[in-house]
Design brief:
The chain is an alpha+beta fold and 106 residues long. Helices cover 18% and strands 40% of the residues. The chain has one domain. It has two helices and eight strands, in the order αββββαββββ. The radius of gyration is 19 Å and the shape is globular. About 13% of the residues have low confidence.
Length: 106
């Protein structure tokens, strides 16, 4: 059995690098699928990335909620450029049309 010795199992876990403590920097074209929560009164947009709650601000939160209500694909977050991309349904565009929102630090 591979884990007969409890000390071996503990040693194996401690020697692996921890990706939760220090997430690697992302390239400009890398994205994360997110489920954004939008606060219309404050203009805040909140979602979870790599296990961390992230909060940003947008001057037109209603535009984001309207796009979310018409979304045909999961929302994509580009951390390097702070861009939230939503693909919405559109007449004449079978795959939908992308809407981009640049978010500011809150």
């Amino acid at each position: 059995m591979p884990f007969e010795n409890g000390a071996t199992a503990i040693a194996d876990r401690t020697t692996q690098p921890s990706t939760l403590l220090s997430p690697r920097p992302r390239r400009v074209d890398e994205f994360v699928r997110v489920i954004p929560g939008v606060d219309l009164s404050q203009g805040s947009v909140t979602f979870v990335v790599d296990g961390n709650l992230e909060r940003y601000w947008h001057h037109e939160p209603r535009l984001i909620t309207q796009a979310l209500s018409k979304a045909v694909q999961p929302a994509r977050w580009f951390p390097a450029t702070r861009k939230l991309t939503l693909t919405v349904a559109a007449t004449g565009h079978r795959a939908g049309v992308q809407r981009h929102f640049i978010l500011s630090a809150f």
